[in-house]
């Protein structure tokens, strides 16, 4: 039997009506049975939903934001569909459901669960609009709610996948459909054992594609981006970038671990374990080769630059004149795990621990509150974490020109710098 192919289209590839039309052209000659399409929310819809949540939490009026978001989706529909098409009442209905959820109480204590109930509307809207447009173009696809397939725990906003249950559902529910029709579904979202919506972490649609591919024993996954493939730096920030024609799983995983945004960090492992190749290609130039990530690729020690913005440096100093011991590090990581905070960089000295973390709503104040009895704490916000893999030390000073350096760390093949522009 023909192996399943999985295509994932991110927010930029469905950001407006021309982008949706381009998506249809990409799959027009590729569509067949045993074909899964995973789509993200349109454009910056997730950011807009997060802004609505912030206003809701602050007891401020968010009605104008909701109206703008609704208008954005209806305007796209107006360019894609004839007047009176079924998509218009469907979009209206999603916003009625969204408003109903937004009428529910929110607090710091239930924020993560509330976030997951709200944020998935971006993917639901996007997938419904794209599915209806493909059908309008005589590209018949079935719509599938990913929450019926992706089973997770109840760790809201960072849910962990129940691989056994997810595979069973994909084999029992999705596979029979795929034998008859292509299927379109959402990235990023799942549900826990009680049927409550969960999410897989920000930008988690890539991970959804990998989960479905591994659960279906797929032949390949293709992620469609606004870049030619995997580059050695973000072309929006750095000049003279170089395309990797291929990467092995380990090197690709290392890049995502340090924050390379082209692929979600959890994507590589399930594909590597199953031996499923991953292609990263440009939706602007779909016939170009892009990057192939697979087990047979040779490691390429090309200097690779990864920049993470909006970072916080937290320095924790012991107050009882002892030296840093394992118990101190354990205490810090215990709180980080409780708050679902990932350490992007760690450095210890005789009397202090320094960690670099992403900025997240409420999390810093909760971390400080939990650790202030054990440590003297200082922190700096609004920083950047620059990571260079296989650095070319001759050109390295250029990366620091005009910046103040807060922390620096190097190993045999990696240099990390915490910096802020002067």
UniProtKB/TrEMBL annotation:
Principal EC category: transferase
Pathway stated in the Swiss-Prot or TrEMBL entry: Amino-acid biosynthesis; L-threonine biosynthesis; L-threonine from L-aspartate: step 1/5; Amino-acid biosynthesis; L-lysine biosynthesis via DAP pathway; (S)-tetrahydrodipicolinate from L-aspartate: step 1/4; Amino-acid biosynthesis; L-methionine biosynthesis via de novo pathway; L-homoserine from L-aspartate: step 1/3
Pfam families, per database record: AA_kinase
GO biological process terms on file: homoserine biosynthetic process; lysine biosynthetic process via diaminopimelate; threonine biosynthetic process
Entry annotated with the keyword Glycosyltransferase: no
NCBIfam families, per the entry: asp_kinases (TIGR00657)
This protein's name: Aspartokinase
Species per Swiss-Prot/TrEMBL record: Algoriphagus locisalis
């Amino acid at each position: 039997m023909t192996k399943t192919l999985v295509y994932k289209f991110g927010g930029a590839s469905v950001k407006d009506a021309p982008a949706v039309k381009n998506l249809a052209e990409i799959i027009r000659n590729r569509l067949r049975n045993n074909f899964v399409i995973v789509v993200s929310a349109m454009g910056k819809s997730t950011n807009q939903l997060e802004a609505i949540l912030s206003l809701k939490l602050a007891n401020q009026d968010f009605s104008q934001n909701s109206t703008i978001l609704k208008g954005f989706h209806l305007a796209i529909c107006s360019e894609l569909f004839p007047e009176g098409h079924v998509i218009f009442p469907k979009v209206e209905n999603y916003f009625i459901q969204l408003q109903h959820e937004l009428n529910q109480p929110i607090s710091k204590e239930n924020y993560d669960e509330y976030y997951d109930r709200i944020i998935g509307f971006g993917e639901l809207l996007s997938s419904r609009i794209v599915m209806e447009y493909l059908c309008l173009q005589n590209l018949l696809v079935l719509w599938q709610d990913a929450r019926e397939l992706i089973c997770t725990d109840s760790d809201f906003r960072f849910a962990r996948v129940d691989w056994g249950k997810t595979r069973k559902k994909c084999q029992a529910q999705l596979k029979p459909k795929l034998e008859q029709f292509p299927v379109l579904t959402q990235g990023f979202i799942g549900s826990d054992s009680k049927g409550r919506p969960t999410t897989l972490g920000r930008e988690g649609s890539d991970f959804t594609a990998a989960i479905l591919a591994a659960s279906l024993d797929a032949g390949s996954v293709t992620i469609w981006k606004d870049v030619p493939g995997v580059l050695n730096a973000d072309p929006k920030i750095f000049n003279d970038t170089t395309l990797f024609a291929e990467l092995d799983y380990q090197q690709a995983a290392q890049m995502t671990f340090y924050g390379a945004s082209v692929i979600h960090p959890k994507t590589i492992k399930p594909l590597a374990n199953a031996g499923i190749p991953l292609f990263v290609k440009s939706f602007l130039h779909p016939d170009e080769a892009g990057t192939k990530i697979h087990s047979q690729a040779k490691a390429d020690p090309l200097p690779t630059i990864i920049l993470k913005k909006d970072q916080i440096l937290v320095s924790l100093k012991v107050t009882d004149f002892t030296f840093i011991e394992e118990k101190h590090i354990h205490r810090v990581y215990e709180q980080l795990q409780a708050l679902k905070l990932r350490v992007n960089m760690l450095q210890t000295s005789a009397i202090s621990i320094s960690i670099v973390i992403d900025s997240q709503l409420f999390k810093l104040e909760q971390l400080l509150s939990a650790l202030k009895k054990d440590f003297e704490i200082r922190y700096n916000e609004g920083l950047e974490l620059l990571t260079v893999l296989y650095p070319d030390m001759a050109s390295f000073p250029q990366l620091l020109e005009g910046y103040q350096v807060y922390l620096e760390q190097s190993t045999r093949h990696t240099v990390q710098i915490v910096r802020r522009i002067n």
